[in-house]
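Why do we care about 3D structure at all? Because function follows from shape, and shape follows, mostly, from sequence. That is the central idea of this module. The next example makes it concrete: a single protein chain, its amino acid sequence, and then its structure expressed as tokens.
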Amino acid sequence: MFDLATKYCFHLDKDNAKSLELFLLLYSLEKYVNGAIIEMNRLEKTRKNITKKLLNLKQNISTPRKRDFWLTYLSCDTHFYFICIDKCYKLITQLAIELKDKEINKLKIRLNKVFDIATIRNHLEHIEDRCKGYLNLKDKRQNIKKHISDFGNFAGDDFSFNNKKYPTGKRSLKELKNIYLELIKILDKKARKDPKFVEKVKMEERNKLIMKALKKAGLIKNLPLKRKISYDFPCGLPPAKNLKSSFSLPLSGEAGGKGVWGEFRPPSPLMKSVRIFSNTYRQLVKEFSGSPATRARQPILKQKFNFLSLFRKTER
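And the structure:
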């Protein structure tokens, strides 16, 4: 699973609105690459279960065979795997158009050569037309029906439709991952033209070195686990018309993540600093570097009051 897209928010173009659009394309692309990884894990698990069941049937031929739905699982997960690939193809195409980059365009062509995604996507997304014998939209308009002998089968790790094979094995996923990583390298070069991005990368590298030194010294054993931030978009919310004004005001959680209502909030381009580590971490850094530890905050009230009990007495 990849978590690389959020690094490039507001760093792919000088115009913040355009940069945000590019980031959203990249973020969506990463989501569907991860979706393809999830589907591949499901496909591999289903294939193992089918193989196991076939071996059991071979050993126990006299055992009555019960109906199962493993092939249904396999076909539906294969369908969604191709949907993820199709979305990746379209998003890479859009990035190539927006950035006017020939290298990204080559990645798009390379991905299509592996899958021929437009053909298989159309077959599965318009299965109602294939059931009637229409192989494409032109045949449907002219009412030309053709015989489809292969209506979706599996040959090893490949899926076949109308006697043509389409890859659904680990090799195809590996190729998708490689294409995505090459795209990240291209975008990273573009982002490094922004001094703020370079400064942010240096800060992250410096923090990694500090954490490594603290870990080596045995000072971070009792540190709390790092909180994972998710970046899920709300369903059905339209994008803001004026993107500059939408993200110009200070937001709760400016480092990105979910807002109060669960909406997606990218990092604010106006923020100057981000609180990355806890006070515990800062204190450990000071102790490790020889600086005195900060004094703990004193309570405002020396005595403990049970305000709830006072409220109950007033009610009586």
